[in-house]
Amino acid sequence: MRMLPMAYVARNLWARRVTTALTALGMALVVYVYTTVSMMTAGIRSTMVATGQVDNVLVLRKGAGAEINSGIARGQAAVIETLPGIATDAQGHLLLSKEPVVLNSLPKRGSGKPSNVSMRGTSAIGLALRPQVRIVEGRMFRSGSSEVVVGKSIASGFQGAELGRSLRFAGREWLIVGVFDANRSGFDSEIWGDADQMMQAFRRNAYSTVVFRLNEVGDFERIRAALEDDPRLSLQARPEVRFYAEQSEALATFISILGTTLSVIFSIGAVVGAMITMFGSVAARVGEIGTLRALGFRRSAVLIAFMGESLLLSAFGGAVGVAAASGMQFIAISTTNFQTFAELAFRFVFSPGIAVNAMLFALAMGLVGGVIPAWRAARLSIVDSLRAA
Amino acid sequence: MFLLNLLLKNAFRHRLRTALTMFGLVVAIAAFGLLRTIVDAWYAGADASSSTRLIVRNAISLTFPVPQTYAQRIRGIEGVKGLSWSNWFGGVYVTERNFFPQFAVDVATYLPLYPEFIVSDKQRRDFIVDRQGVMVGRSLADKFGWKIGDSIPIRGTIYPGTWTFTLRAIYDGIDARTDEGQFLFHWQLLAETFKQRYPGRAFDVGVYVVSIKDPTEAATVSRRIDESFANSLAETLTETEQAFQLSFVAMVETILVAVQAVSYIIVLIIMIVLANTMAMTARERIAEYATLEALGFGPGFVARLIFGESLLIALLGGIGGLAVTLPLAGAFRQAAGTLFPVFVVSPLTQTLQIAAALVVGLVAAAWPAWRMSRLDIVAGLRHVA
Question: Are B175 and B110 a contacting pair, CB within 8 Å?
Fold first, then answer.
């Protein structure tokens, strides 16, 4: 079967430049929304996944979904320390950190509106457990003092959280002596201070979480069983990676569902636009179609040519939309994660997979918008269409 | 009249194209209205708040409690009329997906502070005397099919264990703005269980709710309360109920701003679609417009024809969109369940929907109208569409 050349299809689009550009722009906007939302979801997920370490285990009170809901009494924490299989550092110290985590509401830079920030009481070992965290400005807090270090996103996103300033809470002034970069993980949105000082200041007698490193990743099941079967404890152990992935799931799913629903509704508008354009394209070329058919091109060749025109149009719109959305990569935003009730800063993350999905979405719009007009073009009878010319 | 007739005839000459464009407009205007309503729904809690209620919380953050002993001291502060307190329970009913807020409240003092919760005297009495009792809002009860006397198990995340409550009262909101999705039970039950489990530890209050005599005194009374606890172990932050509710909305502000921005994108998309339709229409009618001008109608008349047709299509589509918004919002409310306890399409949204349709009609016609009004008659007459 003889096909109509691709150049014929492309030239038809070029001949009606204004209409082509308008229709493609409509589709580009839909694809832009779709891509941006996918990038946002990917950004939240990758931030939280980067937060956990494969060989770290996180212990919370049973049933507590988040660190702030949890409570681990000092006695219980001591029992965890006796478990076999916990790694030690070169000096023989257990790689285990007992941490209180609380929320402090601080005013955001710009709007001045308060938002909850996670504050973690930790120690030098806590820092060693998270190799992705590096002090980039100033120094680490001294243990036993009212000094704190703040994550990069906190230093830039909140009023009065810069290096050298002090924060007032729990009846004390806390001097900010350092800023740390947690390599785009959730810790970038936290403030860290000395665990014992924080327990004291907040008048708390229980830690929120205990984090430790495993000697062998394969030991996890055994340690989990030992911990959860101990009747003195009512605790739950999870690999850190899984815990943080779960922490972001509700927010990521919410944004993903909201975004996909919106994109699908919006695509109705763009599909209608494509349909109008393609119907117009067919109507303006009835005589031409008749001539092509008379020359021996089959109905299927006409159908394919018009489908090709619609798909090319949508591919062009899709490419513009994806290109515009990829520019969002350089923007960082933050919002409150419903599960932790605390601020989470993240970036839009672009990936080839997202681009492919967005282009498929665009082509699907072209397919739906083009199929009826193309079908109509293919069904025209040769005599009638030649007479119409 | 003649002009209107011509406009109608013109608009529906290409029935399929006009129908498709209008369909797109209906979808776009309805989506625009729905998105705005979703954003409004987040602010519903703040809108429904009373100006005579203040919320006292721990200055560090909401997750820190306030000592129980503060109750007596707050009652003594000048300007304070009534006082109650509540704790966020944060439990789960069957699965995490069934989210709704649960509060442990001091029932005897709490109900008088919330006159917008309408409940019969008998149910109110039953609730007050039953320590295991619970009162829920009408829409929450409807969602799960709860009836008076039912046992409702809630798994605690902050307070461990499974707690079983007996449904004693169902309240109705005084108007559509009232949140009918709350779950209120006795604070004393929580406090006593806590003390049994952890003897020797004090059980504190989540937030105090203070009613004041005069709404204009809100700022003064707030300052008096905070000053009296300054430099104590638990400093307080007192704000109006509205500011308190808005602080929750502020947390998800980024998402709300995004939704709002996106609601304008759909208007932009449909504007492009209509502009395309009008450009195609105008191009096909070049010869007709040239004829009209040759007959003595001015360029202004041609521009009016194009604007009129565009506005007519946009307005009809806009009215269609407006008409389907209400049933859509109703369906959405059903589907979303307790996520949005208050979901009402506001008159402002409806006005904006029509305004958006008109702007779409005007902008879409601008370019074709400008081109056609500068048409060269001779070239136009020669033009074959």
Answer: no
Q: Output the CA torsion sign for A89, A92, A98, A103.
A: negative
pLDDT band at B384 (very low <50, low <70, confident <90, very high): low
Q: What is the pLDDT of residue A389?
A: 62
Instruction: Say what angle helices B253-284 and A240-283 make with each other, to 10 degrees.
Output: 10
* Separation in Å, CA of A32 to nearest CA in chain B: 10
What's the confidence (pLDDT) of residue B101? 92
A and B: number of Cβ contacts within 8 A = 136
Chain A interface, best mutation among B266, B286, B324, by max A CB count within 10 A? B266
pLDDT greater than 70 at residue B385: no
Alpha carbon B47 to chain centroid, angstroms? 9
State pLDDT tens for residues A141-196. 999 999 999 999 999 999 989 999 999 888 889 999 999 999 989 999 999 999 99
- Interface residue of B269, B277, B286, B313 to substitute, partner A, most A CBs within 10 Å: B269
Please enumerate in sequence order all residues whose Cβ is within 8 A of that of B257, keeping only pairs 6 or more positions apart, or say none.
none
The DSSP secondary-structure symbol of A254 reads H
Which pLDDT score, from 0 to 100, does residue B263 have?
Answer: 92
- For residue A1, what pLDDT band results from cuts at 50, 70 and 90? low
Mean pLDDT of chain A: 92
> What is the value of pTM for the model shown?
0.88
Task: Return the residue matching tokens 């829409």.
Answer: B139
> Looking at chain A, which residue has its C-alpha nearest residue B26?
A269
Backbone dihedral angles phi then psi of residue A248, each to the nearest 5 degrees: -100, -5
The tokens describing A49, both together, are: 């996944």
What pLDDT, in 10s, does the model give residues A81-101?
A: 999 889 999 899 999 999 999
